[in-house]
Amino acid sequence: MKIIQINSVCGHGSTGVIAVEIAQLLKRKGHECYIAYGQGSTDYPNSFKIGSTIENKLHALIFTRILGLQGYGNILGTRRLIRWIKSISPDVIQLHNLHGNYLNFPILFKFLAESNIPVVWALFDCWSFTGKCTHFTACGCRKWETLCKECPQLHKSGGVTYFFDRTEKMYKDKQKLFSALPKLDIIVCSEWLKNEVQRSFFRGRPIHKIYNWIDPSKFAPVEDKTTYKRYGLDPQKKILISVSAIWMKNSNRFQDAVRLANILPNEYQLVIVGKKQNITIPSNIIHIPFVEGTHELSKLYTHALAFVGFSIEDTFGKVFAEAMLCGTPCVVFDSTACPEVIGDTGYTVPPHDVQMMLQKVEEINKKGKRYYSTHCIERVKLNYNYEANVSQYIDIYQRLCNK
Question: Which residues does the UniProt record annotate as the domain Glycosyl transferase family (predicted)?
Answer without folding.
Answer: 230-369
